[in-house]
Design brief:
Elements: E1 18-20, H1 23-33, H2 42-64, E2 77-82, E3 87-92, H3 99-107, H4 114-122, E4 146-154, E5 162-166, E6 171-176, E7 184-191, H5 201-211, E8 219-222, E9 228-230, H6 247-258, E10 264-272, E11 278-285, E12 300-305, E13 308-311, E14 326-331, H7 340-343, H8 347-370, H9 372-386, H10 389-392, H11 397-403, E15 407-408, H12 418-423, E16 431-436, H13 440-444, H14 450-455, E17 460-462, H15 467-473, E18 476-477, E19 480-484, H16 492-495, H17 502-515, H18 517-527, E20 531-536, E21 545-548, H19 556-564, E22 574-578, H20 583-590, H21 597-613, H22 621-636
Parallel strand pairs: 2-8, 12-14, 16-17, 16-19, 20-22
Antiparallel strand pairs: 1-6, 2-3, 3-7, 4-5, 4-7, 5-6, 8-9, 10-11, 11-14, 12-13, 15-17, 18-19, 21-22
Helix pairs in contact: 1-4, 8-9, 8-11, 18-21, 21-22
């Protein structure tokens, strides 16, 4: 059943035992009932998956409390149907639910972010929606075919069971189970008149064999004579030889374990033997899970020990930057009675995590080389998450960076590895240059890269939020230093291999410096403490000015983030670079003999423009508005 809610819900009763659905559940139910799904068969897959999870949980808890299995030790799932009455019943003898758990699990959606996701889904057309199970609430798929659902459940170790019932509209009831059924959960569906085909044994058998053959517990169809027929192979799919498993079986197992409706983009099925023995069956989804950027960054890979389910939430059996992975890891070395609390720092778990990470990175690198177009889809979905590992993954950072792909100023929308970037660097180029921004279009128009483009120096375009962080942690790759285009002091002619005659070089520099001394002094005097320095730019081509930071200073975007989050007290003054070839700068230079307030206003406007382009605030908004209005008035009046 769905995971327990982590928030307090107002389910005040209007009648005895009656509760109102959480608002998000109500919206979800409306989507389900109005048939947003083309294949309704999946409702049975989801209910069987929930039953399987319940058996898994009981098997784990029974390791430390064997009395929970008392009287019924053979865990299984049973299906009964009555075509005449139009009912379908799925029963498991797993962990069961208490009264409180019935209310929390079946009356609320526990995971955050569902509201926005549901609104998005509501705008999508039929056939594009893969909602079932996305929130761990595949239970609600029952309302695709039933106009009433009754859930009878008794938690293992408790004396009293309860009955949950609803028509899938606005409310549900929870009352004591007068018959007090045994441990486990029974979901009884009262099928709609036009959906009674799902009570047919042959239809049920077909669905189970198609979607749930991999379930590791027996799924029995119980006839009217109480004769039970096992419908599935009831063995852990990941323990079977790869040669015995079809692609469709892999796909259905992925949908089962991931509670997803898509097909996997990549399947990794391996058995490791040696100092640490484990089997992994992992999938990379073809679509981005809705909770990928949830703050808890928890993995959803299930950890098993000798085919016994242990956990899929508390333990990072894969690193956080691979949390998009779905599937199972089954260890032969961990003790069955190990507590979840001690697993996180367990040496065996850490070795498994490291080995699996390396394996995944190796497969991704191979995929990127063999099928770049397919890899582009993967990177668009999961690239920002992968790059999180560059911030905190020390042991295989280079291997991770090998997998990373980027767009550049010269790649024309294609993804490029840093290895490819290095291979086509200019012969004298020392640095891997990068630009940080909100989107590629804005970066390509930025004054910061004008000089790079003119000289044919490639610039890596970084537009994901995580990019602002990892470039401050990792500053070297294969002997080449990463350097922001917004840093001062780079001789682009030298990087591009443009070498002036040595004898003339010093004289020309001295001449330029003397020529612009008064111009620089005027900018400094006008801007005062607003700037750290004013310099002649070596990279501006079509823009008059830009902001840069000294070699030792913090990157502009990182400082912005820290200021916004109160990590540093205030922004520091930047360096203003000016382009002496630009008409505006040349006009200012010519009027320096008799500078006016209008000339100072022009300098202040240029400085404001440079701040706007870099996302820096304009400290004197009123003054900026006044100066801009005066400029417009002069332009309109000739």
């Amino acid at each position: 059943m769905p995971a327990s809610a982590k928030k307090k819900v107002d389910n005040s009763a209007t009648n005895a035992g009656m509760h109102h659905f959480d608002a998000e559940v109500g919206k979800l139910l409306q989507l389900v009932i109005h048939s947003l799904y083309e294949n309704k068969d999946i409702f049975l897959r989801e209910l069987i998956s929930n039953a399987s999870d319940a058996c898994d949980k009981l098997r784990y808890e029974a390791i430390t409390d064997n009395t929970l299995l008392k009287g019924d030790r053979e865990l299984k799932i049973q299906i009964r149907s009555n075509p005449d009455k139009g009912t379908l019943t799925i029963t498991d003898n797993g962990i069961g639910m208490s009264e409180e758990e019935l209310i929390k699990n079946l009356g609320t959606i526990a995971r955050s972010g569902t509201q926005a996701y549901l609104e998005k889904l509501g705008k999508q057309s039929k056939g594009d929606v893969n909602l079932i199970g996305q929130f761990g609430v595949g239970f609600y798929s029952a309302f695709m075919v039933a106009d009433k659902v009754r859930v009878t459940s008794r938690r293992a170790g408790e004396e009293q069971g309860h009955v949950w019932e609803s028509d899938g509209k606005q409310s549900y009831t929870v009352e004591k189970d007068k018959e007090n059924h045994p441990r486990g959960t029974t979901v009884e569906l009262f099928l709609r008149e036009d959906e009674k085909e799902y009570a047919d044994k042959h239809q049920i058998t077909h669905i189970v064999k198609t979607y749930s053959d991999h379930v590791a517990f027996p799924i029995e169809y119980v006839g009217e004579d109480n004769k039970a027929e096992v419908l599935n192979r009831a063995s852990a799919l990941w323990m079977r030889p790869k040669s015995d498993i079809t692609e469709e079986q892999y796909n259905e197992f992925y949908r089962h374990v991931a509670h997803a409706g898509d097909t996997p983009w990549l399947t990794l099925h391996n058995k490791a033997e040696g100092t640490v023995e484990y089997t992994n069956l992992l999938f990379v989804p073809s679509k981005r899970p809705f909770d990928l950027f949830h703050p808890d960054r928890m993995c959803r890979v299930k950890l098993y020990v000798k085919r016994v389910f242990i956990t899929d939430e508390q333990v990072q059996v894969i690193p956080a930057y691979m949390r998009f992975l779905r599937g199972v890891i089954d260890s032969e070395d961990l003790p069955l009675n190990i507590s979840r609390e001690t697993l996180q720092n367990n040496a065996i778990v850490q070795k498994i995590r490291s080995a699996v990470s390396n394996r995944v990175l190796s497969e991704l690198k191979k995929k990127a080389k063999d099928d770049p177009e397919a890899f582009k889809t993967f990177w668009e979905n999961f690239g920002p998450v992968m790059k999180e590992g560059l911030c905190d993954q020390l042991e295989n950072r280079d291997a991770l960076l090998d997998v990373c792909r980027f767009q550049t100023s010269l790649s024309d929308g294609k993804l490029v590895s840093l290895e490819e970037y290095i291979a086509r660097m200019k012969p004298d180029q020392e640095f891997i240059f990068y630009a940080l921004g909100d989107n590629n279009e804005a970066l390509m128009q930025s004054p910061q890269i004008e000089g790079f483009i003119k000289r044919g120096i490639e610039v890596v375009l970084l537009t994901d939020t995580v990019d602002d962080f990892w470039v401050n942690v990792l500053n070297e790759f294969k002997g080449k230093t990463l350097r922001s285009v917004s840093r001062a002091g780079v001789d682009l002619d030298k990087q591009a291999g443009i070498k002036p005659e040595i004898k003339k070089e010093k004289a020309e520099k001295d001449e330029v410096k003397a020529e612009h001394e008064k111009l620089i002094a005027f900018f400094k005097e006008t801007l005062g403490e607003n700037v750290q320095d004013v310099r002649i730019s070596g990279k501006l081509e079509g823009s008059p000015v830009c902001l840069v930071v000294p070699e030792w200073a913090m990157d502009i975007r990182m400082e912005q983030f820290l200021v916004e989050n109160n990590q540093v007290p205030k922004r520091t003054a930047k360096v203003l670079e000016i382009n002496p070839k630009h008409a505006i700068i040349q006009s200012i230079d010519k009027q320096l003999a008799n500078p006016s307030d209008k000339l100072k206003d022009t300098v202040l406007l240029l400085f404001a423009q440079a701040n706007i382009l870099e996302g820096e605030p304009i400290t004197d908004v009123t003054g900026f508005s006044r100066r801009m209005n005066a400029l417009l008035e002069r332009a309109l009046n000739g």
